[in-house]
Amino acid sequence: MSTEEKVFTQEDVNEGKKKIHPNSLANLKPRHDKQHMEMMCKKADEARLKNDLMKEQMKDVLKLVNNLSDSLMDSIPKGLTVMKLAMIKAISADDMVEASRLASIVAEYEQPKLQRSETINTNFDYTDLTDEELKAEMDRISGSSNETGA
Predict the structure, then answer these.
(1) Cβ of 108: how many Cβ atoms within 10 Å?
(2) If you average pLDDT over residues 136-143, what whole number do you get?
(3) Fewest beta carbons less than 10 Å away: which of 56, 90, 122, 132?
(4) Could you give the C-alpha distances from 9 to 16, 26, 27, 35, 93, in angstroms and in order?
């Protein structure tokens, strides 16, 4: 075996002297032949024209949205209204699963969220109080301001 190996070029592949597998890393090498470059230029021009057209269409849509009057914008239904209409449509189509899903979403916006309230009962132990302290506490609870004058 010789230490010199023949290096195949793209012309060798084109002429059929060397076959390259489609998954070969040789396919990753840049191609500088005129035909390929013309094809890539044509493809880039098409993409550029398509992007320019899309930009122009977007500008037209933005102009249209900016020119809409507020009254017209107010007549467009809000998201909650659309969800209610979809819920009614689901009910009329007997799709109760979808109707209940939409109803649960709509309910979050229509009904206030209820919070759990805890009742705290405190039991006081009055056995350690003196008679005067007990009388003062009873007066405070009953709301009277009678004080003993001893």
Answers:
(1) 9
(2) 84
(3) 122
(4) 11, 10, 12, 16, 67
For residue 118, which phi and psi values (nearest 5 degrees)? -105, 135
The closest of 104, 102, 106 to 86, measured between CA atoms, is 102
The gap between the terminal CA atoms of the chain, to the nearest Å, is 127
Cβ proximity of 51 and 43 under 8 Å = no
Please write the tens of the pLDDT for every residue from 99-139. 999 998 888 887 766 666 777 777 777 777 888 888 888 88
More confident residue, 125 or 144: 125
pTM recorded for the entire structure: 0.31
Show me where the domains of the chain are located.
10-69, 77-110
Tokens of 78: 């809000």
